[in-house]
Amino acid sequence: MPRRSYDQYCAVARALDAVGERWSLLIVRELLGGPRRYTDLHADLPGVSTDILATRLKQLEGEGLVERRRLERPANATVYELTPRGAELRPVVEALAHWGGPDLGEPRPTDAVREHWYTTTA
Amino acid sequence: MPRRSYDQYCAVARALDAVGERWSLLIVRELLGGPRRYTDLHADLPGVSTDILATRLKQLEGEGLVERRRLERPANATVYELTPRGAELRPVVEALAHWGGPDLGEPRPTDAVREHWYTTTA
DNA sequence: GTAGTGACTTGGAAAGTCCAACCTATTGGC
DNA sequence: GCCAATAGGTTGGACTTTCCAAGTCACTAC
C-alpha cells in the first residue's frame, strides 16, 4: 500500500495523495483519449514497468477514477477507462501540458506539432 | 540525483519531470503565497523531512523555478521565492486544488473554510 | 559562555521502483 | 489435438528514494 498521505486538510495535498504518485497522471493522460487496453498503455508509456502499471491501475480503480470494463466478442478484451470523476482531471493535465509545453523542450517542436500536442494531450 | 525522466517528447511528462516528485508541488503551493524561510516551509508542510525539503529546494532552484535570497539586517534570514517561471505553475496548483477540494474530503469543511482554502491555495 | 534560533547534513531503516522472468488463460492456425 | 501468439498480469531481487532522528555550523541574545 502506498504510504503517501500528506495532509488531509489541504486540497492540493489530497489531490496529490490520489494522483501524485509516479505514472498516475500519465496514465490518466492516456485515458483522457479514450479507453485503452493494458498492453496498449504499457506500449504508450515508455519506461513504465508492468508491475507498476498494474498497481497504479488498481489504485486508480480503488479511488474511483478508472473503471475496468470487459469487452465481449469479438474484441474480447479488457479496457480501462476514466470515470466521470477521473475525467475531471482534464484541467490538471491541461495545465501541466501548457506549462511543460512551449517553453521547456530542447528539441523545440514546430507550431504544427505543438498544436498537435495541445489537442491530443488536452 | 533524481533518475526520473519519463519521456522527453511529451509536455506532461516533461512537466512532471520538473515538479512531479513528492513534495515539489506542495512547496510551490506554499511559495505561491510569497517568500518563505526554510523553517517556515518545514513547519507548514507537515510530514516533510528536512533532508527532502533541502533537496527539493535545490532541485527547484536548479530548474529555475525557485530563488534563494538572503535578507540583510535586521531580518538576517534566507528566504525562498518563486521565479516568474515558477509562478506560472499557479494554474496547475489551482487545478489540483479545485479537483481535490469540495468533492473529496471526509471532514467536510464549511463553506467559509473552503473559501479560505481557495483564496490561500490558489 | 551558554542557550536558542535558522539552515541545513548525515546515517541507517523503510518504502517505492525497476527489470527480467514467469504464469495463466484465450485465440488462431494446421 | 498441438503449437505459437497475445492479453493481462504476478513474483523475486537489485536499486533508488524517502523517512526519521540526530548532529553540525553559524549567528544572535542574554
TrEMBL record, chains A, B:
Record SUPFAM superfamilies: Winged helix' DNA-binding domain
Pfam families cross-referenced by the UniProt entry: HxlR
Lineage top rank: taxon: Bacteria
Gene3D superfamilies with a match to the protein in the record: Winged helix-like DNA-binding domain superfamily/Winged helix DNA-binding domain
UniProt keyword DNA-binding, yes or no: yes
UniProt keyword annotations, A-Z: DNA-binding, Transcription, Transcription regulation
Residue ranges constituting the HTH hxlR-type domain according to the UniProt record: 10-108
Record's protein name: HTH hxlR-type domain-containing protein
